[in-house]
Amino acid sequence: MNKLAARSDRIVTAFAYLLLIVSALLVALPFLNLLSISLSSANPVVSGDVGLWPKQLQWDAYRYVIKAGAFYSSLRISIAITLVGSLLGIVLSVMAAYPLSKPQLPGRKGLVLLYVFTMMFSGGIVPQYLLMNSLHLLNTIWAVILPSVTAVFNLLIVKNYFESLPEEIEEAAKIDGASPLFILFRIMLPLSAPVIATIFLFYAVGFWNDYFNARLYITDQHMMPLQVYLRTVIFEAQDPSGNFKLDSTNVGSLAPQSIINATVILSMLPMVALYPFLQKFFLRGMVIGSVKG
Amino acid sequence: MITRQRTHIPLAANPMTSGPPKRRTEPGKGGRFRREGYGQMYLILLPSLLLLVIFKYVPMGGLVIAFQDYNIFQGVRGSDFVGLQQFRELFASEEFYRVLLNTLLINFYKLLFWVPLPAFTAILLNEVRLLLFRKIVQTTLYMPHFLSWVIVGGIFVNLLQINGGLVNDVIAWFGGHRVSFMLQPEFFRHIVVASAMWKEVGWGTIVYLAAIAGINPQLYEAAVMDGASKLQQIRHITIPGIAGTVVLMAIMSLGSVLTNSFEQILVMYNAAVYDVADVLETYVFRNGIGQMQYSFTTAVGIFSGVVGFVLVVTTNALCRKFLHRGMW
């Protein structure tokens, strides 16, 4: 290779590294700034002195949020929605995926279409709201959970997985006269740990991050999940206790922005803690989802 | 939901088709039905199917209220039937066109960046040979994908606040005037696009990285033998290698051009920017649920739903025809 080409190659490579460093910083620095402000005292925050490192370190913002009762109650509701919703979602997805993975099941095509159609068309906001209202599910966690536990994408992942298992696995049990229910729970399920872990994370992240359904169906302040509560803190400068507006006069030595940021960071912790698993399993889920050509 | 589906579509090349039916010659269909336990199969499917019908299909039936003057006390059966009056009002309403135009503006603005940025980033990542560096960059760029819109909103509010926000500090440092970004209509759409890119570009690289990984390495080897430079390899091997995926992603994104951005805007907007922020669904949400204009906003919902459906089906048909890949 001639000298000129080698030099242009080095420039391309350097350019790639440089741009990637810049884009990684563009993503990372806002987090750092968020954190620094949550840990700094009022004076440097208000005068705009805090950049990427805390000034006049304090932890009181976190103490303040943790002491606010509304944070806990919304956290509890979010945890309940996430756990109950994910478990129910897994059970229903697995139970629906198994019959639908049988190519000879009469009516299978129509049934699959019935599911897939809901990915492309829905009754929309108002009819869904009116349905919840007439079922008396408004302001309950079920309003958030039940419409989402038939997530078609997750169902298809499990269905594809079942289809990828060799038929011989079931054959022996079938000859012994085992029922489909027995085969599903005793033979298929133990083989499905990786795919169940994957859809568990899909469901859990979906429920944990869901804002719209909760905003639509839950208006009672005491039933608000974390995301809805968090939005009132961030965008309406609601005090984390839920009782008054945040401004510099009523939170004493702390800047309101420090309190808001501390609430954001505390709400982020579960996703940050799970992140290594999320990255791995979300990538794997995309692969499992595409096993079938 | 929508972004999540979108990122998965291209890899899930064809999840819907089953394998070839494995028919064995079996005398009598009824015997087979019992032997395979199909009765119990339907029973296993039933709970999920019931919830699907109740929570997805019953609301579709509820769309009839768009043809009524619906009153919550009289219910669907008691309310007056008004035919197409809501739709006539809708198509005569200036506000509707404003919101529709706004929806298209915001989502096409997003598309402008959503297709090239992740592809470009993936090409850059592919040039990196230091695995640790690559891993660190990927881990950083993927992170925001897992955060909710509320948290991303919180991060941007913090960056853009008027006193002490990093962006305003930089502006002030250069001698400019501080701006209350979140309250200014002229900035809102830029903030929506910027925050969406911040959240999703990293994760969006995955499809393109997969496409690059699928390129035959012998092509690069041959190019190196012929003395091709890096730039030439990118131009003549990498870019043609991912062109199909780029087109696929662009067409797919067109399918969600009416529904995209809804949750993000619902989180980030406020009364000061409604004029430039409203998309069809935020408009339905605020006026339908908030103002109880149930019938009128359901008509808006039907418009958005039907057009969205046609778009998705058409874009998929296009992808199947020209790229031989589709969502199903």
Automatic annotation (TrEMBL), chain A:
As for subcellular location, the record says: Cell membrane
TM annotation in the entry: 12-32, 77-98, 110-129, 141-162, 183-205, 259-278
Query: Which InterPro entries does the entry link to?
Result: MetI-like, MetI-like_sf
Which residue numbers delimit the ABC transmembrane type-1 domain? 75-278
Q: What keywords were assigned to this record?
A: Cell membrane, Membrane, Transmembrane, Transmembrane helix, Transport
Q: Does the keyword rRNA-binding apply?
A: no
- Quick one: where is this thing mainly located? membrane
Q: Which Pfam families match?
A: BPD_transp_1 (PF00528)
List the Gene3D superfamilies hit by this protein, alphabetically.
MetI-like
Instruction: Tell me the membrane topology, using the record's own terms.
Output: Multi-pass membrane protein
The record's similarity note reads: Belongs to the binding-protein-dependent transport system permease family.
Read off the PANTHER family from this record.
Answer: ABC TRANSPORTER PERMEASE PROTEIN MG189-RELATED-RELATED (PTHR43744), POLYGALACTURONAN_RHAMNOGALACTURONAN TRANSPORT SYSTEM PERMEASE PROTEIN YTCP (PTHR43744:SF9)
Name under which the protein is recorded? ABC transmembrane type-1 domain-containing protein
The organism named in the record is: Gordoniibacillus kamchatkensis
- Source taxonomy lineage? Bacteria, Bacillati, Bacillota, Bacilli, Bacillales
